[in-house]
Amino acid sequence: EGMTIDELAKRTGQSISTLQTILTNVGEKVGSEFDTLSIDIAELVAMEVGVNVRRLHSNEGTEILPRPPVVTVMGHVDHGKTSLLDALRQTSVAAKEAGGITQHVGAFVVGMTSGASITFLDTPGHAAFSAMRARGAAVTDIVVLVVAADDGVMPQTLEAMAHAKAAKVPIVVAINKCDKPAANAEKVRLQLASEGLLLEDMGGDVQVVEVSAMKKTGLDNLEEALLLQAEMMDLKACIDGPAQAYVVEARLDRGKGPLVTAIVKAGTLICGKYVVVGSEWGRIRAIRDMAGKSTERATPAMPVEIEGLKGLPRAGDDIIVVESEERARMLSAGRKRKFEKDRLMKIMDGRVEDPETEPSDEAPKRVELPIIVKGDVQGTVQAVTDALGSLNSPQVFVNVVHVGVGSLSQSDVDMAQACGACIIGFNIKAPPSSISLAASRANIKIMQHRVIYHLLDDIGNFIVEKAPGTT
Ligand code: GDP
């Protein structure tokens, strides 16, 4: 398995000599253009020239089987995304096995009596979806667009539609809160249609289901609609061969180190293998299913938690299996170099595009401010993240490395420490003293606010402190 230098040149559009130079740089022996490179090396080289080489092993004598759809829930704030996910999660396989108690792990699977199943990504909202897409991760097969029956189409409804359209992901509409007296599903249908959604009952192929997340009605219909949509899409994956998978969520556990929720797209992920994840690497020490049960292998659309990485990857990073520790280290180092180069390029682009920057001989260093945002609900987290983006300038790069809903936890502090970030708590309770203490010991700044305006003030001051002369 592998490809020749000649073949790689054709696929990347690079000259053979360019590729040979890169090969020498990464310490590979270089022979003729008809020498075969291993897939890892080919990938590494392709990345160095900015080309994403899809792995080749998928259609060689492997078994291709239908796989469950992976679904993301999107929609306007307060229209019931979280409630709907909660209601669906209660019917999930893990919830049944664990007696209803599940921890948030980024994804869950709902199994049908027919034997079919659906995988739901557990982070509602657009930020997660875009973050994944930004890394080229086509994880989501179907978007559930939640629209409140009493409120109708709102700005973020349209935004979600735009996201789905851009990603070419089909939508199934869930009109929620149908239990409310003010519910008007018919009006919502008309609004959606006038926004260009071709609804099924109007001759299109977008299915619409009426539900109530609160009363837990219509959930079966929603699940049926998702399976029907999946059937029409003819989702398939090969089970054999090394896994191709994506990170859905990553967090640091104090005892176990980086824990990654991953969804396999193709192949089988096997315990004990070396992997490269984004620019991190490791050896898979344990795989757990969503009920926390240890397993040896993960197959397509099955969300699992994996343990054994050396560093913390990001949502949307790809996971590839490599044959040895040496390869894993090398590929990870190559990617780190590439990412760093891209980051610098982006910063330079930012400088060029901004007319207000005065050209100077010394390139001013752009100060990066890694930030973790925690808020009471997804909507405020999104609003804070957007507001922070407005602080970006050629001198300052506000890098939101992690967002979350809920109170501050030790894992937030751990992550802040890992990436040198400060933490913003928006509209949440003050953390318990043990957490504050841990943060101050690690020299992590926590900013607690309830008003965006005050928050931006505080951050502005912080930026002046960190990077004098930038504002
Ligand atoms: P999100 O911001 O989209 O995640 O919305 P949430 O799930 O947090 O729900 C917003 C509010 O709507 C909460 O107060 C929920 O209790 C309420 N809600 C959600 N689903 C329903 C529903 O089906 N019926 C009614 N009556 N209220 C609902």
What tags apply to this protein structure?
single chain, alpha/beta, 6-stranded mixed β-sheet, 23 strands, 35% helix, globular
Describe this structure in words.
This protein is α/β, with parallel strands linked by helices and 471 residues long. The protein has helices at residues 5-12, 16-25, 39-48, 81-89, 93-97, 126-134, 155-166, 185-194, 219-233, 325-353, 378-389, 410-419, 433-441, 452-466; strands at residues 3-4, 36-37, 64-66, 70-75, 107-111, 117-121, 142-148, 171-176, 208-210, 236-238, 244-253, 257-266, 269-270, 274-277, 280-288, 294-295, 297-298, 303-309, 318-322, 367-375, 396-405, 422-426, 446-449. Strands 5-6-4-7-8-9 form a 6-stranded mixed sheet, sandwiched between helices. A 6-stranded antiparallel beta barrel has the order 11-12-18-15-14-19. It is globular and about 75 Å long. The protein starts with a strand and ends in a 5-residue tail after the last helix. Mean pLDDT is 83; it is low at 55-60 and 351-362. Residues 75, 77-83, 124, 176-177, 179-180, 212-214, 377-379 line the site of guanosine-5'-diphosphate.
